[in-house]
Amino acid sequence: MNKEIKEAYDLASKKYENLGINTEKILEHLKEIPISIHAWQGDDVGGFERPNAELTGGGIIATGNYFGKARNIQELKLDLEKALSLIPGNHRINLHSFHGDFGGKFVDRNQYKIEYFHSWIDWADEKEVKLDLNSTLFSHPKADDGFTLSSKVKEIRQFWMEHVCRCREISAEIGRQLKSPCIHNIWIPDGLKDIPIDRKGYRELLKDSLDEILRDKYPSSIMKDSLEGKLFGIGSEAFVVGSNEFYLCYAIANQKMLTLDTGHFHPTESVGDKISAILPFIPELMLHISRGVRWDSDHVVILSDDLIQLAEEIVKSQAMDKIHIALDYFDASINRISAWVIGTRAVQKSLLYALLQPWDMLREYEENGQYFQRLAFLEELKTLPFGAVWDFFCLKNDVPVGYSWIKEIEKYEMTVLRERS
Ligand code: RNT
Ligand code: ZN
Predict the structure, then answer these.
(1) Res 52: pLDDT
(2) Is the dihedral of CA 304, 281, 94, 97 positive or negative?
(3) CA of 61 to the centre of ligand 1 (A)
(4) Burial, 114: exposed, middle or buried (Cβ in 10 Å; 0-12, 13-18, 19+)?
(5) Coil, strand or helix: which one is 334?
(6) CATH 3.30.1020.10 for domain 33-357
(7) Which of 110, 190, 270, 314 has its CA 20 to 30 A from that of 32?
(8) What is the largest CA-CA distance in the chain?
């Protein structure tokens, strides 16, 4: 088996070599690209504040009732470990603040402290993964009317500002301890179901809240803030305070990182196209890779044309150190661990595909106005033996090759997940 994979790889490698592509170097590069894997796929965005917590409010929703959902931190960690064992390379885990280890007692969001994250830091250290963090401004009574940082009620706004400030402080400590900047992402659900009158008022409040929150400075060697906008959400169809334009302008004005969630735009918009348009103006970008399907922005990521185009733009940007790749989707209707594996491997495949393209040659055709050649090559390149290179990458990094990982998940279902119901 291994011999066949190696033989297929050697043949593939020669084909790419004919185009001036060194597959060895590319596999080394791919191994070094971390993907921030979102913990919330494992618990249907429930968190561990209260037993059996479910996603409420917030304009997002996890549908499905597949058995074996992680009910506590231990189970979530175990599931993440299983997923990581089936994904090549070294990655990051993206936590939501309500995944903290609250030791069985209720701790409100404005009381979060680093001590609730010690067990995650220890785990990350042991598993050699890094951590990112998200403030959690939904699934909470104080977010029930649909407003948080832009609420017209001062106490509500204050409560959420305190929450975000604490999450920033926690992020800084996580980054300091794990020796890798922890990216702290802010997304708020604020918006209205129907026609708003005072768009301006809400946006002014959001701007003021952000200004105040971001007043405390932390070195970028330990934490970085990123801001995530959205087009619409469930229950915020008519108006989203933190729209993409709002945060784009805010990020430029304040030189902050911007999060582009691929599910947060009109379906005909290309997020890949946005990278080169935005990156000259802000220091860094974060991608929440997702897959929009009709009204849902959070389906499991697959190797789609959109994803490939996104990966190609990441690679061609020549600024991969400024682009942080994270996942953001949640599907409770299939095995949750498989959802992580499918999505992460899809992103890695798209990056590999993009890295294997002869960009210099293609650019030259473009510059010479040789557009038929450009298009013809783009088409022919699609059927080069990229799968053989991917298989070898998995083999080299000691994870199951091809579809053989499916069996591993089936075994895990039988031995671990069955016990949970
Ligand atoms: C919601 C945003 C946000 C969330 C996570 C759970 O539309 O994409 O990133 O998905 O914070
Ligand atoms: Zn997102």
Answers:
(1) 78
(2) negative
(3) 10
(4) middle
(5) coil
(6) no
(7) 270
(8) 67
AA letter at 176: R
- Does any ligand 1 atom lie closer than 6 A to the CB of residue 159? no
What's the gap in Å between 261 CA and the centre of ligand 2?
5
Nearest CA to ligand 1 atom 7: 60
User: Which of 328, 340, 391, 405 does the annotation list as catalytic?
Assistant: 328
Among 60, 167, 327, which residue has the most ligand 1 atoms within 8 Å of its CB, making it the best to mutate?
60
Tokens 């000691």 — which residue? 398
Which amino acid is located at 45 in the chain?
V
Catalytic residue list contains 328: yes
pLDDT at 66: 98
For the chain of 421 residues, list the mean pLDDT of each consecutive stretch of 10.
94 98 98 98 95 83 96 97 98 98 96 98 98 98 96 98 98 98 98 98 98 98 98 96 98 98 96 98 98 95 98 97 98 98 99 98 98 98 98 98 98 97 76
Indicate whether residue 190 lines ligand 1 (CB < 6 A). no
Catalytic residue check, 96 = no
Please give the distance, rounded to the nearest whole angstrom, from the Cα atom of residue 45 to the centre of ligand 1. 9
Q: Which amino acid is at 107?
A: V
Phi, psi (degrees; rounded to nearest 5) at 340: -60, -45
User: Which amino acid is residue 75, in one-letter code?
Assistant: E
Domain ranges of the chain: 33-357
Q: Which of 98, 328, 329, 331 to mutate to test the pocket of ligand 1 (most atoms within 8 A of CB)?
A: 328
What does the alpha-carbon distance between residue 391 and residue 170 come to, in Å, rounded to a whole number? 39
